[in-house]
Design a protein that fits this description.
With 138 residues, the protein is of the alpha/beta class. The protein has five helices and six strands; from the N terminus they run βαβαβαβαββα.
Length: 138
């Protein structure tokens, strides 16, 4: 697991494979709707990896809870998607950089590739998530 501030996260995402579609989910272990939808992101990552899709889970858990909450959660749920802990308390600065209309509520997801980017401030069921992803794969 990587731990980044927002600038590092931005730079990391900017260096990713330009031929892929990315699904970036902002979540936290203390967010019940986030935890409920995590298996859908995992399933998407597994089922679409051969279609150049990569899921990145950006945890907004407190860094001081890394060892006591986040790592045990990841182990218990055996998450295969890449997990990044966002260690940046200046959320008033970075939230509008993610999306100007984002209130900061989670879960929130960005799906993007070279052609387009769509931001979602909502939770998903698997079929809804898959439907949204498919519009990027044409």
């Amino acid at each position: 697991m990587k731990i980044f501030n927002f600038e590092e996260l931005e730079n990391y995402l900017a260096t990713k494979d330009k031929t892929k579609t990315y699904v970036v989910n902002f979540w936290a272990t203390w967010c019940a709707p986030c935890v409920k939808e995590l298996p859908y992101f995992e399933k998407l990552n597994k089922e679409y990896s051969n279609k150049k899709v990569e899921v990145i889970l950006v945890s907004l858990d407190f860094p001081k809870h890394l060892e006591t909450k986040l790592k045990p959660f990841l182990n218990k749920h055996k998450l295969k998607s890449e997990v990044i802990l966002l260690n940046d308390v200046d959320s008033n600065t970075w939230i509008p950089k993610v999306n100007k209309d984002w209130s900061g509520a989670i879960p929130a997801t960005i799906i993007y590739n070279q052609k387009k980017t769509i931001f979602y401030e909502r939770s998903f069921e698997y079929k809804e998530l898959e439907t949204e992803l498919k519009q990027f794969l044409n």
